[in-house]
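User: structure tokens for this one?
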Amino acid sequence: MRRWRGDHRRGASTRAAAHARGGVRDRAETDPGDGAWDVSRPAAIDAREVARRALRRVDAAGGFASVALDDAFAASPLTDRDRALATELVYGVLRHRARIDRALDAAVTRGRLRVSARVRTALRVGVYQLLWLDRVPAHAAVDDAVAAVRRTGGARLAGLANAVLRRVARDGEPPLPEDPRQRVAVEHSLPEWIVDALAASVGDAEVPAAAAALAMPAPLVVRAVAPVDVVLDRLHSECPTARVVPVPGTRAAIAVEGLGAPSALPSFQAGLWTVQDVGSQRVVELVAPEPGQRILDACAGVGGKAAYLAQLAGGGAHVDAVDVSDAKLARLRETVARLGARGVHAVRADLTDPSAPIGDRYDLVLIDAPCSGLGVLRRHPEAKWRVTPGDVAALAGVQRRLLDALAPRADRALVYSVCTFTRQEGPDQVAAFLARHPGWRVEAEVATWPHRDGADAFYAARLARR
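Assistant:
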């Protein structure tokens, strides 16, 4: 679903007439907090309520938005149109949360808006519609949010919500800061430390474009398993109205729009293609597997890279796909079976344990290391509200231990990759490894970026023995 966005200041001003009828009385702009009111009533299950429930789960349980939405859809069936709206609301609020909160704070008459998490979620969903979704009538966004707040906190708190949302509809959001770094942080709802990490990686001149790209929805890219022309023909046949084009400069990547649910298509189920971002594909291509080789795919996850390794090797390689998660390995086996990837063996192991049940030596080792995941913020915008600089430092320690543990098992080459852009987890991690292990050298590096390549932000280095 396309984001229904025009100029947000223009959109807010055109709604002023509907929501600025007379003055708004000042109210105490706080609420007693979650659980202080016992007036909740069952809500009608529509797209907005599903979005609020999913957002509350993301905030409370720390899960992925995609999982929260899938579970919400399973519990509350919606039409395709309403599912699309619920998805837009969840990801829109997560992408623009800080900017939404700034607009809310500016709309109160005294101090900052102090409300419970449940009420703030309802207000955020309302503000996102007011400032970004031009096709949603302002009265519908306000009325729905006020009703949701009333169910939680009663009439007094609903009055506060109505007043605040009417001010946002009338006035829009405050002007963006003039300081360039602060402007980027506010405009694209990025914590300032993430803006600093971007600047360290791409330079100040590229920060605005890089930050803007990270705040946009990610395009759907698939990897052809069958020949590209065969996949193109099948997708055109199954989805005549979809836009399906090869990605220039790639071996097997195809960009698609309007495809619907990929897993529902017969060609997907038949294993002719799979969903995989260009950045992820380029990491595997950097490994450059060949028939007859023994390959270790460390931290294999759900198997996308392991299956591509097997494909590039023509099915003639032995790939040990290792992960510590039974759930991920179960999905890996399903992926490998669907794609017909021969030679992939799922192994459950902790690779920092010297007694891990894997081979002593491999021709090639791929370490797709656990990382902060900032490179996939387009897909998982909730991560920017959870990851901290301390997390980056801790993950860098895990990456260091994996490199030191697995380098002795690599005979020809070791490829290290992360789906993030912090230097601490990328180039600096590799430089520190080379300082500890002078017998290795960098043979090649790959870095992909949303604003440069239309891909997730990946960093990968191919290391070879001297």
